[in-house]
Each structure stands twice: as structure tokens, then as C-alpha cells.
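Handout, section B. The chain below has 292 residues.
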Amino acid sequence: MPRRALRRALTAAATAASALALGLAAPSGAHAAAPLPYVALGDSYSAGSGVLPADLSAPLLCLRSTLNYPHVIAERTGADLTDVTCGAAETGDFTEAQYPGVPAQLDAVKSDTRLVTLTIGGNDNDTFIGAMLACGTAGIVTAGHGSPCKTLYGSTFDDQIDDTTYPAVKAALQKVRAKAPNARVAALGYPWIMPATADSSCFLKMPIASGDVPYLRGIQAHLNEVIGRAARETGATFVDFSKTSDGHDACASSGTRWIEPLLFGTNVVPVHPNARGERAMAEQTMSALGLG
């Protein structure tokens, strides 16, 4: 082939290749994926109650933090977050106003919602507050010895979890599914509040009698088990913290714990996740859902 003809052929080939490259690249830029429509529901463990800074756009009584796990997930994934989490929420607050001027949480879930996360159930029957107050009072009376709370209450809390919390959580997840049939739904368990066993240093932070420490942990394990069961039965993903949060309970050191203790903690709201705990909850949720 003559040199001039060869040059023309190479030029034409280069031009065609450039056009092809531009043509392939253009759709990626022109049709960039829209942010994932994400709705966060749930109670104070979802809201990050007690973690500063507070979310000033939220109702004051909800004690919502800008560092809660929904905000962490949205920041890391670029999701379009609608956060209606609220401290002290129960499953009933999904369908009814929790406070005057605070809409039912499910109002935020739409047919085009593609991601829903929630932590709920711990406030039903006052399970967490009731058990902690009951066992804390009993522990102080016995100066940390024995298992007075277990003796007084036995299976009371477990029975309430089976009889009312489990069906309520399952019904709430079914309602989420009905409103957003194409959404990925993640129901989070609660990270450990108490260690498997406790020493004297734990009593100074969490005044629970030594024999009641495994009793309380067993109640929490039962609650997480029924949340997981409800999730599986409704097609949701259960995010399990039973392994990852072990050793990060309220009795752990300040640089290790995910949950702040009742006494000598750093959060405005005790016995709740700190910022480290909220980040860990976000990371475990993203891992469970396969989100980048």
C-alpha cells in the first residue's frame, strides 16, 4: 500500500476508534445511576440518640444524631436518605404518630423506596428499660451479689417477647414490604449491652448483680432471635451482631465499647450506642446487604 494511502487508512481508523470510545463512554456519564432511595426507620438505636451532634432537622423529642448508622450508610453509599428514626419508638409508631407533629414512620416509605433499614422491638413492653431498671434496682439492694432479678421476674420478659414483640415486629416488616415491594429491607439486631459474665468493675458501670448479667444477656439474645425470625419470615435481611459486638458491651473500656454504660459513660443518653457503635452497625449492615 502506498505511504499516503496507508496514512489515510491509519487516520480513518484512529478517528473511528475515538468515535467508538466516545460513544461507549457517553452513556455512562449521560445516564449515571440515580441515588438509591433509602428510608431509615426505627428507635433510639437507629436514631443514635445521645450521640452528638444532634440532627437539628429532626423533631426535638426524637434525639436523632447526624452520626447515626443511617447517615453513615448514606454517606458511604451515596444513597438518598429519608431518616425518620426516633428515640423511644415502638413498633406501633410505624403506623401511628409517636408524638404530636411526628408522623407515623411508615408514611416515609414509598413504592419507589429501594432500601429500608430499621432497629425496632426493644421498647415494646418496655423490655430494655423495664429489665434494666428492675435488675439495676435489685442489684443495688444485694450489692451486686446473686441473681435477685432472675429470682423476682423469671421468664416474664421472655414471655412478653414471644407473646407480643415477635408478632409486632413481624407485622411491622410485612407493612414495610407491602409499601415498598421492591425494596431491600434490613432488620438490625441489638449489639450486646452486657458481657457474658461480669466482674466487679462492671458493677461500677452497670449496677447489675453478677448472677443477673447472664440473665439480662439471655433476654437480649431472645429478643434478637425473634427479630431474626421475623426478618426471615418476611423476606428481610437480619443483621446479626452477636459475634461482632462481643467484647464491645457497656462494661468494656471507653476506647473499645460500642454501648455506653449507665454510669461513667460519655453519651447524653446512657445504655445506647456511641458514635463508634453506630459506625459499626452501619458497616455490618452494608456488609450484610453487599453495599459498597
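Note. Residues 1-32 form one domain. Compare this with the example in section A.
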